[in-house]
Amino acid sequence: MPSVYFQTFGCQMNSADSDTIHELLSRRGFVLTDSCGGSDLIVVNTCSVREAAEKRAKGKIAEFARGKKSRPGQKLWVVGCMAERLGDSLKEQIPGVDLVVGAKQMERIDEVIEEQFPQSQYDTGASPMIFGKTAVTDFVPVMRGCDNYCAYCVVPYVRGREQSVPYDIIESTVKEKIAAGIKEITFLGQNVNSYNHGGIDFPALLSKMSNIDGLERIRFTTSHPKDCTEKLIDVMASSKKFASHIHLPVQAGADRILSLMNRKYTSSHYRNLLDMIRTRIPHADITSDILVGFPTETDAEFRETLSLVRAARFTTAFMFAYSPREGTAAASMKEEISKEEKNARLTELIALQTEITREIYENSVGRELEVLITGRQEKRDKAWMGQDAGCKKVLISCEPAEPGMILNVKATRSSGMTLIV
Ligand code: SF4
Questions:
Q1: CATH number of the CATH domain containing 145
Q2: pTM, whole model, 2 decimals?
Q3: Is the CB of 153 within 6 Å of ligand 1?
Q4: Is the shortest distance between the CB of 148 and ligand 1 below 6 Å?
Q5: Residue where a domain terminates, one of 363, 379, 398
Q6: By CB atoms within 10 Å of each CB, which of 147, 258, 300, 354 scores lowest?
Q7: Which residues pair with 361 in a beta bridge?
Q8: Distance 49 CA to ligand 1 centre (A)
Q9: How far is the CA of 26 from the centre of ligand 1 (A)?
């Protein structure tokens, strides 16, 4: 049987796209391998969100291209956001790349794969496999693209305009996954709160999903603070099936910077949202994305970000120093902040958030947690890994369990980023 090796960079949307590609290939008899050297096909799914992400992907692609020379017949595909941005020029930049499939072509990926591997020639009669089929958690994209044009972000250019998936497709996908043993689904969209199809908005979609038997836990990402409504928070609070976690990227704490970023909310609007979430969903985990060193950000404005982080008490956050992305509005703004200053701000922010994360984990010790067991801990085969109803990792070493079980446990200690039972 032909084999395929995946290297996926970037966000959960890319993970979901890799799953889709894998599923289409598995219908043609491809099996997944964890050895790039022994595979017939390598698929590199790329991220464009930062220059460093593109550099990492290019380095990996070049390494695979060199390896191909000693593996006659092996194919190398590059897909995703960097593939969209650079197109076929990637084949010239890195000889050895056989196919470039941009993110916008994911809409017709089944046709692209059919052109490369006609199903009639490859179908082995094997039933389609679900990517990582022993897992009990999975992703379901419900919308693609983004209309927001945040000043620093390439996503609207590489992923295109917002498009929502029809409800009946989402429902049948979810039911198929449940039948395959999936217990928890994360609904995905670049701007998931703006889902709207056939009169069904995102809160209505979530309500309908919570009525599906067998779906034990529901998550979603990513939420834009301007579209995170009271109705959505009420739906989250309405059922124990909803994880008590929301990822709500704030990006900055100063209103002038938020406006330059074209984020369309103020710092006080964001703080009010957090109050509403915490009032209705006690112990909610709120996580965020934060960008420091945006063009013209003053030290005082950076201190406003630190002040917001202190008040928000995010469980964790993705934190980055700004780097310009070609074609975005911010790329034409004059950069006045040195790399050293940006790195110093990032270091200060990370130190603050790390301390808050440590405190939040420690405060969860002794509290009753509902943990979904997701699998064995690789290095300690008597221990189980899981996730609580929020977003905290839990390591359970004493209970007999199996993936998919939900256990009520109390953590006895915290290692800083993991709760231990
Ligand atoms: S909301 Fe802003 S940051 Fe998020 S994908 Fe859209 S443009 Fe990018």
A1: 3.80.30.20
A2: 0.80
A3: yes
A4: yes
A5: 363
A6: 300
A7: none
A8: 10
A9: 32
